[in-house]
Amino acid sequence: MSETLTVGAAQFGSRIGDLDANFEEHHRWVSQARGLDLLVFPELSLVGHYGAENLLDVTMKRHDPRLIELSRAAGDTILIVGFVEEGPAAQFYNAAGVYKNGKLIYIHRKINLPSYGKLIETKYYAQGRFVDTQEITEDWRLGLLICADLWNPALVHLAFLHGATLLVSPISSGVEAVGEAFDNPSGWTATMHFYSMMYGAPSIMVNRTGPEEDLNFWGGSRILDPFGHPLAIAGQDPELITAELDYAQVRRARALLPTVRDSNIGLVEREMNRLNDRLGVPDIIRDDD
């Protein structure tokens, strides 16, 4: 038997640092998306790309009542919302929270913080430290990574080794972000196709739209099937795109191309340990906070 998942991507532009206005905007998209199993918002959807310029005015704890209220308004729909999370000891993270029925069920803190071109995230955010996944249903397990996390293929590989059957990436991609010689729209098109095709998993990429200071966000949000074929692609304007994902296709794709099965974790672990020894890298003490 096949299990389907109805998903949506809400593409729009946030108001820089205006939490009240952005929460109102989120509620409007939630109203439009009733009946979906999963709705994904762009990276930092509640504060805007440049919201961290007023860092202390836009941070939220992960259980902020406004986040809980938004999730309750969505009912059974799972929401993935972007915000600046204030963690313990006044550490601030570019985070994506996963909420359902008024409860936080998972959170990802961005790991690969870009500091090149016009991107200066290391100025504001602490670095996330873990790649994990979250079960949505018996068959669907969410692999959630934020924007530049996908430009470190090792992080994506880890998500799939942790059992992800769906890759979700909220992004904040401006045309000028990296530089004139780098084509961001084409880059993201190739990246999302590659990961879905390579790992036999549907993927959802959600970008913002419109101008913010010196960047122009090109939209282009998309939902792909586990063979890398587009099921829905947004234009450059605010838009809600939706698609139905079929787990039977994941089974078929992974039977044809067993990337996860053949990943050879033992070899990778051995080679990483050998590389650490060669470079003199000290052991890392894990902190599960």
UniProtKB/TrEMBL annotation:
Transmembrane segments: none annotated. Keywords: Glutamine amidotransferase, Hydrolase, Transferase. InterPro entries: Aliph_Amidase/BUP, C-N_Hydrolase, C-N_Hydrolase_sf. Pfam families: CN_hydrolase (PF00795). One of its GO terms (biological process) is putrescine biosynthetic process from arginine. Residues 5-247 form the CN hydrolase domain. It comes from the Bacteria. GO terms for molecular function: N-carbamoylputrescine amidase activity; transferase activity. This is Glutamine amidotransferase chain of NAD synthetase. It comes from Mameliella alba. The lineage of its organism: Bacteria, Pseudomonadati, Pseudomonadota, Alphaproteobacteria, Rhodobacterales.
